[in-house]
Structures are given as structure tokens and as C-alpha cells.
Amino acid sequence: MFFSGGGRREILDELIRGAEEATVLFTLVGDEGVGKSMICRRFEAEAGGEIVPVYFPQPVESFEDVVRETARHLGKEIDSVTKANGADCFREMIDTLELTGRRLFLIFDEAEKLYLATLERIRRQLEVENLDRLRMQVLFSGRTGLLENLDQLDVVEFEPVSKMDLILHPLDEQDTFSYLNHCSRYLSEYEGSDVFSAEAAQKIFQMGRGNIRRINIFAEDALKSVGKDTSFLVLLDNVEGDDDDDTFEESGSGLFPYPVASLLRDRRVQVVGGVLCLLFLLILFSGGDNEQTADEVTSDFKEPLQEQVIEKAPEISVEHVQPVPVETETKEPDIVVLTDENNTKKLVVIQEPAIQEPAIQEPAEQETVAAETETTAPVSDARRLFVARLAAGSTWVTGASQGKYTIQLMVLSAEQGEENLQRMLSEKPYADIVNQLYILRRTASVDPLVLVYYGVYASMADARNARNTMPRFLREHHPYAISIKGAVDKVKGP
User: Fold this and answer.
1) Contact predicate 12/42, CB 8 Å
2) Among 134-143, 244-253, 312-321, 333-342, where is mean pLDDT lowest?
3) Which of 57, 260, 377, 485 has the most CB atoms within 10 Å of its CB?
């Protein structure tokens, strides 16, 4: 079932026309729940002739996964797909299609979740396969973050290709009314009749804000409140909900996915829930007198634990540590705590206890070195920071932090990038977070680059949360989360 209103049919026709007229790259962008997946599936069903569509409903991890899924869809057996042979396997499948006068059309849903390295590889393959004739087309469908990710690829030089950008908007009030009754006609119990009044549709539109997924949820609630008596329209009184409620559950399939809220309002569920609560209370309070309560059990453990902590807590105060005199008679190394004029404590180990002069003279020498360092030009400090963070980034290339994630801050050309970056690291805002920066160089390229990353995180979700809460001056660079593997792939790329 496809709802053609709200501009959906026009967008689908434009997509089909562009595919037939040899447009190479398509983007379909819209908010979550507005019907992008419906457009993708409908295009897959209606595309014909020379076009062989392959639909990816979930984001893939790598280009090798794209090759495997495409092979599975085309019924081609591939023993193994690696980075070394992935492009060749992919080209063989496209060559096979070309022999029969057909071409490949890849459809990526939720494309805003694709890793940047995967997105770049797909875009590069699109360029390679269409050098002299059309052999491959791609549709990226996703939320607005997709456009930001594609903008990040501007630092990579691609050959220009023909492109079509499509935007899917939420339904308006009239489209919502049409959509509700369009769907209800496919429900067997309503025998093809309209069941939603204009007032009820208006209320659902106000709560759903034109979002198809939310509309489905509120419509399901309204239909259940009417009951099985189909002789009446769904009126305004049957529509329940909170206009300010921004949360909803995505569940089920069909015309109106069954929401969690309506499940909780089902009387049978309420009765079963009440019985379970009574059983729980009976079990909770049916214990004998010899049983301890939670508070009693907790109190049994609190006091001994506190006593142990008090007994084991060391009473050490750093402020009261006094310099230890060096004695010539002992054969054990002595540790001397010295304090300079700036109250900086230095720990000196005397390897040969008979010699006392090095321990006495060392603080003065260190102060002289510190004074010389302060007179050095700020550029050398910035260079030192740059080299240190470049060394931190190089550990990724050697295999450190594999399986973890980071945030890409910026990509600079190598010619002026290093100089600008060094100057930036010496500025106050960046000096506060410099230890969280990781720098990678891409030298094996016609266009060498310097890439700057922020932090190391255990999961993609953690990296995205950190991106959303990072300081404003960092967010101005339009950062995005990426796997460390993907970051390393960038500097190993062509």
C-alpha cells in the first residue's frame, strides 16, 4: 500500500525519471518517520527495464559488506571479500549486468549512519564505474545529517557526476485526513469506507505534526477507543493524546502499527497486571519473623565496612613531607624531596649516597633550564604540542584503540595545515583540550592532508553524545563521529 498524497507520488516519479535519464547520484532527505523508507521500497518495486535495484534497509559497516549483499541479491557466489579484492569482485558483477544491458542501482536507507570511510568508498566506486558510460547509480536516503556527512567529503577530490537532491516534507492537515482514510480503506473490518472525521484528523495532525509514524500511532489508539462498532466515524472525542508529547514507540508493521500506549490501556492487560502486582505483594510480605528487612541487612554491613575503612585509611599529608638528609654511611639509595621557589616539589634519587653535591646543585640547574625554556619563542611550544599529538595519532595506525571511536574535527591541506594548526594549538581554547586531540597525516597522496580528531570512545553512541556536548568552539567545525578504523583508513587511502 502506497500513499501518493503529500507530494509522495511526485517525488517517486521524479526519482524514476532521473534514474531512467541517467542521473548518477540521488539524495532523499527528510525527518525521521516522514516516509523515506516507503519511497525507497516503492522505487525498488517500480524500477524496471535496465535498472537492477539493490535495497539496503540498514546501514552497512564497510564497502566489503556492500559487495557481499549485492552478490547475494544477484545470486552470485563469492568465496571471500576483502579490501584487496572487493573492488574487483564488485566490478565483475557490474560487467555481468552490462552484458545483459542492465545497470546496478544501490539504495541506502538510513544513510546518515554510514561511516564516512564507507561513504567515501561508495562515492569513489561510483566515479570509477561510470568513467565512460553509465553502469552504476546510487540513492542515499536519510535524515539531514546525511547532507552534513556528504559535505565532509568535499575535502576529497571526486570527478563531478550528475546529481538529484530530493526533500520529503511532513504531511499537512489535509494530507493527514486523506492519509488516515486511505489507510482505513485497506482494513477489512471497515470494508473500504472512510472512518475518520475531519475534526479527528485535525486533532491527530496537531499531535503527530504531519509525521507519518506518529500519525499511525495516534490513529491506532483512536480506532481501538471506538471498539468494534464500525457504524460510527472516529470522532474528536475518540482521539486521545498530548499535543506536547515528543516521545513515541516504533513498533509493529501494517497500516497502523500497534503502539505501547494502547497496549497499556487494554483492559485485559490491566487486569493481568493487577493480579501480578497482588501476587508480588503477597510474596513480599509473606516472609517469617526470622527474616531480616532490607534496612537491617544493609545496617549489618555498613558499620564493619566503615570501621575497616577508618582502620586502613593512611594518614599521609603531602604538605608535611620534609627534606630527607643524605647520609654517607648508608648503602641504600636515598630519596630527597626538594622544593624550589615556585613550590614545585622535585624527587631526586641519589644513586651513590657518598656524593652529596649533585643533590644540592640539581634544583638550581633545573631552574636555569626552565628559565631558558620560558624565553623560547611560542612557536616552538606549539610545534612541540603538534608533534606530541601527531605521535598520539600515530599509535592508531600501529593498531592501538582498534574497535573504538572518535570525533573528526577538521581536515586541512598539508601545505598550510600544519602551520595553521600549530598556531591554533597555542591559543587558549585549544590549549585546554590539547591532550584530547589526535592528529593523523595522509602523505601517500597527490593532495596530502592533516586530519584532527577529538577523544577516544567505546561506542559510536558515546562518540555522538560527546559531539553533542562538546564546547561550542569545537562544534563550529561541524564534527562528526567516526570509527578509529575509519579514521586510519583515510590516511591509508589513495
Assistant:
1) yes
2) 244-253
3) 485
Distance between CA 6 and CA 14 in Å, rounded?
Answer: 14
Output DSSP code: residue 58. S
Distance (Å, rounded) from C-alpha 451 to C-alpha 290? 67
pLDDT at 397 over 60: yes
Residue 106: phi, psi to the nearest 5? -90, 135
Contact 445, 411 (CB under 8 A): no
Following DSSP, what letter does each residue of 134-173 receive, concatenated?
Answer: --EEEEEEE-THHHHHHHHGGGS------EEEEE-PPP-H
For the chain, counts of helices (H) and of strands (E): 19, 11
Contact criterion met (CB below 8 Å) for 391 and 441: no
SS3 category, 183? helix
Residues 6+ apart with CB under 8 A from 15: 26, 28, 39, 43, 139, 164, 166
Q: Which helix (H) or strand (E) holds 13?
A: helix 8-20
Tell me how far CA of residue 447 lies from CA of 61, 249, 411, 486, in angstroms: 26, 47, 12, 19
> How does DSSP assign 333-365, residue by residue?
-EEEEEE-TT--EEEEEESSTT--HHHHHHHHH
- Three-state DSSP state, 114: coil
Q: Residue 485 to residues 108, 145, 185, 273, 455: CA-CA distances in angstroms?
A: 21, 21, 50, 48, 14
Instruction: Give the amino acid at 183.
Output: C
Is the pLDDT at 454 greater than 90, yes or no?
A: yes
Strand order from edge to edge, sheet including 480-483: 437-442, 449-457, 405-413, 480-483
Indicate the pTM of the whole model: 0.51
CA distance 59 to 61: 7
Q: What is the 3-state secondary structure (H, E, C) of 394-454?
A: HHHHCCCCCCCEEEEEEEEEHHHHHHHHHHHHCCHHHHCCHHHEEEEEECCCCCCEEEEEE
